[in-house]
Design a protein that fits this description.
2 copies of one chain form a homodimer. Chain A has 355 residues and is an alpha/beta fold. Chain A has helices at 14-25, 42-59, 74-85, 99-108, 221-226, 236-251, 255-275, 300-312, 337-354; strands at residues 3-4, 65-70, 91-96, 113-119, 141-144, 146-147, 152-153, 164-167, 182-188, 199-204, 279-281, 292-297, 315-316, 327-330. In chain A, helix 3 runs parallel beside helix 4 (99-108). Chain A is globular and about 65 Å long. The model of chain A has no long low-confidence stretch (mean pLDDT 97). The interface between A and B is large, with 62 and 62 residues.
Chain lengths: 355, 355
């Protein structure tokens, strides 16, 4: 048995794999592979509609918010967002709280003025900055809800009159939030939502068309809205896998139900880490991510040894990102509690052996 | 049995569907789905390397040409190419020979001056313009090698000292060409090369870094080259399907071998069309596409009737594009001769019945 702790692309529900595998041979009894159906057929329109409607239902989105499935990953959105939203002479506020936010800041500077309201770079992004002010004149305030690499997560939505723009790539659909509070939400699919190769972008329509900047057609959210995410050939299979994953989440009881399980998984792992001094979580307690749990050990030799134990037990993707080192266990929606239980058992055994 | 004449996404080899279906449950015996493997693992690097190396081999590309697999479809390249290649004060020459070229022209105008050297718009793009001059001062000359919608194809490479940029989305890998003559080649994968959701871009390195224009990181070919198509999470599965399709093509004997079969398929269909006055091919003979065969009938009632016959016989995707009407049969690499044989039989029977 494999326990997949990958940070993304990452584990998806077994039911999704099974259905997707079947659809590659025969999609819904059509005799055609999902890979060879036309994107302007009722077959694919049904897939796209179900993906959009299920996302809308699961996130309780109001009618002012449009849901788009676009080519590219979140990295594409780093520039597409300011390109669409930020006028040459405008200013956007950004929170510098991790690797991805930092990259988003770099791209935004190509399109307007960027004000970094706070940063946690001083301690290698191991906490979420607090007590900062968001300038009222900002076109939008951008932040990353969950930092996949550093293992931090923002547990509340900032109170501000400035429109909120959030990169939710690594925690979308993992917990209840008032998603309607956001002017724009984006997420690469390859964590909680599907396979790599598609972005979900949720945008409040009143944010668009205000910069006066001419846009390439494929980069223009308004064009995608007008064409219902079918401006060009979409990444058909990636959208299909999103639809299956969203359908699965709905069958599990939705976001609130999965959140409870996610909380239990994270609590078990953090409690174990906190109880065993041989392991040292790197993130400040109040800012710990429920999705990506990061820890180190004090000696490189011990890390090597414990990594070997994990591998022997079928664990995949548990090595930490090179910028942090140590370990990272990603506990996305589709990861079973059993995998976390096994990991914590191994930790206890290992700590006992080394005591 | 289904005969898939879709224009794209379109039929792929059965072996590709079978292997992809298996890999979604278990990729190469790893116990992991291809959808959940990390993109920075040796597992995926092997896939990407094989895709690139096989494409290089099949197209006999020299070392000056880099092969990239990028997010988005060819429509993304419509602006990404001038963004990378065309300076603000530069001029690019374009051939207006179909729906896609027209769209490419529109996007290029955002970045520099565009000179349309010739157009076949006067007759609804049913031929390829000839006898035009390409201005020597152009940064590049852009054309579409095969027009998917209108069913025309350019059967030779223009002689010019201006660097050639070609959209080969619908005929790449279908015929032998001296691909090294091109400065940049791009193609959405979803016809001869794989599933929707990835672009192949082949670029001669000396074309890059000359505009002085700051580029968004994700749009910068040089960044993608420096990162070996792993600048961000790539569309893993779409790249994998490309790799399988390229591997299949190599097993068939390569581009030259498939070209012979493609010629036979197209000859059978065009000969049949030419022999039956009830069907009327829309494209000038010398410019007919071997990939997309377009014809109409003189009465809408007859078209309806023949379309019904096709459908009864398991034919999919044979209705013409709304801009041309009538019929379109796409004869991509993976379409079997049997499908063309059946179609031509049905044509003969139908013509006989109506005679």
């Amino acid at each position: 048995m494999v326990h997949n702790f990958n940070s993304g692309p990452s584990v998806l529900p077994k039911e999704v794999f099974e259905e997707a595998s079947r659809a590659i041979l025969d999609f819904n009894g059509t005799g055609l592979s999902i890979l060879e159906i036309g994107h302007r057929t009722s077959l694919f329109q049904g897939v796209l509609d179900e993906a959009i409607n299920t996302a809308r239902e699961l996130m309780k989105l109001d009618a002012e918010h449009e849901i788009l499935f676009l080519h590219g990953g979140a990295s594409t959105q780093f520039f597409q967002i300011p390109m669409n939203l930020l006028a040459d002479k405008g200013m956007a506020a950004y929170l510098d709280c991790g690797t991805w936010g930092k990259k988003a800041i770099k791209e935004a500077k190509l399109y307007g003025q960027v004000e970094v309201v706070a940063s946690s770079k001083d301690r290698n992004y191991c906490y979420i900055p607090k007590g900062y002010a968001i300038p009222a004149g900002a076109t939008y305030f951008h932040y990353t809800t969950n930092n996949t690499i550093e293992g931090t997560q923002m547990h509340s939505i900032p109170e501000t009159s400035v429109p909120l723009v959030a990169d939710m790539s690594s925690d979308i659909l993992s917990r209840e939030m008032d998603f309607n509070k956001f002017a724009l939400i984006y997420a690469g699919a390859q964590k909680n939502m599907g396979a790599a190769g598609v972005n979900m972008v949720i945008v409040r329509k009143d944010m668009l068309g205000k910069t006066g900047r001419p846009l390439p057609t494929m980069m223009d959210y308004q064009e995608h809205i007008a064409n219902g995410s079918l401006l060009n050939t979409p990444p058909v299979f990636a959208v299909y896998v999103c639809m299956l994953t969203l359908r699965w989440l709905k069958q599990q009881g939705g976001v609130g139900a999965i959140e409870k399980i996610n909380e239990k998984k994270a609590a078990l792992l953090y409690d174990t880490l906190d109880s065993l001094p041989i392991f040292r979580p790197t993130v400040d307690k109040e800012d710990r991510s429920l999705m990506n749990v990061v820890w180190v050990m004090d000696e490189p030799e011990l890390e090597k040894e414990f990594l070997a134990v994990c591998k022997e037990n079928g664990m995949v993707g548990i090595k930490g990102h090179r910028s942090v080192g140590g370990f990272r266990a990603s506990l996305y929606n589709a990861l079973h509690m059993e995998s976390v239980e096994l990991l914590t058992e191994l930790m206890k055994e290992f700590a006992l052996k080394k005591a």
